[in-house]
Amino acid sequence: MPQVLEETIRQLKSIRLALILLGRFSWLRMLTRERVSDKLPDARIGWLAFEHAYRCDEYLAHTYQEQSVRIYWSEDAKRYASSDPSGGQIDTILIDIGSRIIKWITSLQMTIEEVPVLAPIGDVVRDVSSSLPFITQNALEVLHASSFDDSARTNSCVCRTIQGPRHVAIDPAFTPTDSLMDQPAPVFGDSVELATPYFWTLAMRESMASESTALSGIEYDGLPISFYRDIAKQTWDEMRHAQMFFELAVELIPYYGASLLDSDPRKALVHQFKETRTGLPVPKERNLYEAMWNADLPERLVIMQIKTEGPAVAAIRKKLKTKLCVVYPKIRLAFQVDEQDERSHAAIGARWLKYLIPDSTDRAELMAQAELLRGVLLLTSFSHYNSISLPELVYKYSTGKVMPVAN
Ligand SMILES: [Fe+2]
Ligand SMILES: [Fe+2]
After folding, report:
1. For all residues of the chain together, what is the average pLDDT?
2. 21: burial class by Cβ within 10 Å (0-12, 13-18, 19+)?
3. What gap in Å lies between CA 332 and CA 323, rounded to an integer?
4. Span 174-397: which CATH code?
């Protein structure tokens, strides 16, 4: 009997590790996709995987006094994750992970039939296979068994173990046109004419927010599972926002077209979108993902969650008071959802920055530094998409010219 219990705990720990890998590889696959509608299911899988992994982790700590897991890539999985894998290669890895999860759950269920006193373990993993229906029994062994073995972990630092993709694709609905250096990004205004381009540009930026949080979850090892659970929540939230604002823009486009004069060149863009579902103009620098790629985790938390999403809450509240929100209840609902989620994202940023830098003086210093660095980080996207060297751009904008920062 003691071996049965030991084996059952070992299997539950392996399921926990497999779910963590499932979440991280789903994020990686998300970063290889183009369309928001294709990225969305991967963001959801990431969330489900970490919710289940967190539940296993809590149960192991609560019942068996097992230490909560810190997350590290296994050597084997890291090799795949850092080799810039294609979507197809990641599919194979996900099938492998999924089939192992099924195998361990089936084995746990058989054990519980024989040893009913272990029933709670069955309940902990009961919903895993029904909420992740794509996982099947196809036995496809890609990863080494040590990837699912807790005792094989040797690392101990919070560090950027791998580097995720340097660039991501934007949805084919968008066409990069003018540079932010010449033309500022659309801002929200209380009319369909102003709000529609703002919504599609926002959709692209929301997608980048999701991609940059997923990037942190993929790249950084050594944090507690609750960090990745937070990241999983935000990654799915942001991709749902991207889809929500994109659909809102698509719904408004006919009214936007009607609000333009026949001589307005934007009328042709509306026509093109109606015919081909492409051509919505966005900045040449796209969604500024490179700025996040070039930042480290504390800088990302300051620049994105604390300094952008925190103040965004107040800005959304102002938008909720506009006439447009009265006329279009869907716009009001979108902003209401956004406001709640952004508030939680700002809290995620504050929580993990404090974890990484517990001393308040050091934290304040890092925040000030990250703010100073923000402009340079944004210029990395400018440099990439305009083929201008970074030093040239830094010189240009540090000698008096105002930085064309996207709001
Ligand atoms: Fe968002
Ligand atoms: Fe957010």
Report:
1. 93
2. buried
3. 10
4. 1.20.1260
Please tell me whether residue 176 adopts helix, strand or coil conformation. Answer: strand
Q: Where does the pLDDT of residue 156 fall: very low under 50, low under 70, confident under 90, or very high at 90 and above?
A: confident
CA of 209 to the centre of ligand 2 (A): 7
- b/e map of 75-103 (b: 16 or more CB within 10 Å)? eebbebbbeebeeebbebbbbbbbbbbbb
Distance CA(317)–CA(339), nearest Å, equals: 7
Task: Tell me the per-residue pLDDT of 19-55, one tens digit each, with 9 for 90 and over.
Answer: 999 999 999 999 999 999 999 999 999 999 999 999 9
Tallying the residues shown for the chain, one arrives at 407
Distance in Å, CA 316 to ligand 2 centroid? 12
What's the CA-to-centroid distance between 78 and ligand 2, angstroms? 28
CA atoms of 160 and 154, how far apart (whole Å): 15
Closest residue by Cα to residue 18 from 162, 175, 149: 149
Tokens describing residue 69: 């897991």
* Distance from residue 234's CA to the centre of ligand 2 (Å): 7
Ion ligand 2 neighbours (CB, 5 A) are 309, 342, 345
